[in-house]
Design brief:
- It is built from 16 helices and no strands.
- The chain is mainly alpha-helical.
- The longest helix has 27 residues.
- The mean pLDDT is 89.
């Protein structure tokens, strides 16, 4: 029991949110008479929240550095508008249009990163200005009207699914196979992690805890893929999300850039004295945010099959809330990519569940605000206990 208690204390925010996500899902599963976790609704949950989860991955890096980005919703709308002009009006190849859109997102991020990193204007002010600027540019580019429809190949980013090469009749067999492969990878990773800790003489949890952790992940993965297999299988956007999660988790946990981001957020002066090029790190974090905001805008445009002047409204608030609920600290230096994803899923399940039970938008907004306040309050309480 001592080992479990110690493990939970070290990861209290992340494990706490996982437990909260499970209980929220069970609660709404009961309240909606089983509709919440039906295959169609689970797929819709992924599709409806994909663009927020993409933003949350970038936003958590910004928050870890001690900054904030209020412009991401407007940037997503602006890039969506540009992509519509390229693909619908100019009949450009969708692949080329996507690449150019992502490059434009990088330029937007570089513009804002320059003011924050090198001119030292607070990120709150720079991105607030960006929110107004790019919302205005979106309306100018679209001339106040929507542009549609997008090419079918582009729409598949948000509405397409991995084809079942095994041609299952009632089940998507490929999805089940992928679940088994992921289970094997989880078991191997846990085994490899224990070997490394033994090799370097690090303290490690008892074997049974590792087995229980791996078993729990295997059960969750296979239940999840089983549910998806009953509908159309794995959505294309879920593959994109998983690739982003793996890449960014690796960068933050195992690469020098990730350590520099955490060091910058923990103490900028100390990081600078330690040789971290703080201005460059800040600049590239905002460039990265611009690229992911562009990707989010493309995903949303593909799902809506239209570029509209009102696209991206409140995206920044949902992304920021996902990061804080998922364990990021408002003072910087603390947060994880997986935590931000969990926070985004908590928000997504709550939104979907409250809609299914018929709660009005006014109640939904109030409850989400309360959850955010409690999450940050919980973070501050934990810090005061460990101080």
């Amino acid at each position: 029991m001592g080992a479990i208690s110690e493990l939970f204390k070290k990861n209290i925010r992340q494990y706490g949110m996982i437990i909260a996500l499970i209980f929220i899902s069970i609660f709404f599963q009961i309240m909606t008479d089983g509709i919440l976790l039906k295959p169609l609704n689970v797929t819709n949950l992924i599709l409806q929240n994909s663009y927020i989860l993409v933003l949350a991955i970038g936003m958590v890096l910004v928050i870890i550095t001690g900054h904030i980005d209020l412009s991401v919703g407007s940037v997503a709308a602006f890039i969506g508008a540009l992509s519509a002009i390229m693909m619908v009006d100019m009949h450009m190849n969708p692949v080329l249009a996507v690449v150019l859109s992502l490059l434009m997102g990088a330029l937007v991020g570089a513009w804002q990163g320059f003011w924050v990193a090198y001119i030292k204007i607070p990120a709150f002010i720079v991105t607030l200005a960006g929110m107004l600027l790019f919302r205005g540019l979106t309306m100018i580019v679209l001339n106040g009207q929507s542009i549609a429809p997008f090419p079918k190949t582009f729409q598949k980013i948000s509405s397409g699914f991995i084809p079942d090469i095994f041609s299952g009749s009632t089940m998507n067999v490929l999805t089940l196979v992928i679940g088994v492969i992921l289970s094997v990878l989880v078991i191997y990773q846990e085994y490899r992690s224990r070997k490394i800790t033994v090799k370097y003489g690090f303290e490690q949890a008892p074997v049974w805890i590792s087995i229980a952790k791996a078993a729990a992940l295997v059960v969750v993965i296979n239940l999840f893929t089983y549910v998806l297999a009953q509908y159309n299988g794995i959505p294309n956007i879920l593959v994109i999300l998983m690739v982003l999660i793996v890449i960014y988790s690796f960068v933050m946990n195992h690469m020098t850039m990730g350590r520099h981001i955490y060091a910058l957020g923990g103490n900028e002066k100390a990081a600078s004295l330690s040789g971290v090029k703080t201005k460059r790190v800040t600049f590239w974090v905002f460039v990265n945010m611009g690229v992911l905001a562009a990707l989010s805008g493309l995903v949303f445009a593909a799902r809506l099959n239209s570029a509209t002047p009102k696209a991206g409204t409140n995206f920044e608030l949902d992304a920021i809330a996902a990061c804080f609920i998922g364990g990021a600290s408002a003072s910087g230096g603390i947060g994880t990519v997986v935590g931000a994803i969990i926070g985004g899923l908590v928000m997504g399940v709550m939104n979907n569940g409250m809609s299914l039970v018929g709660l009005g938008v006014d109640w939904q907004q109030g409850i989400k605000g309360l959850v955010l306040l409690l999450a940050v309050g919980f973070d501050i309480y934990n810090k005061s206990k460990t101080a």
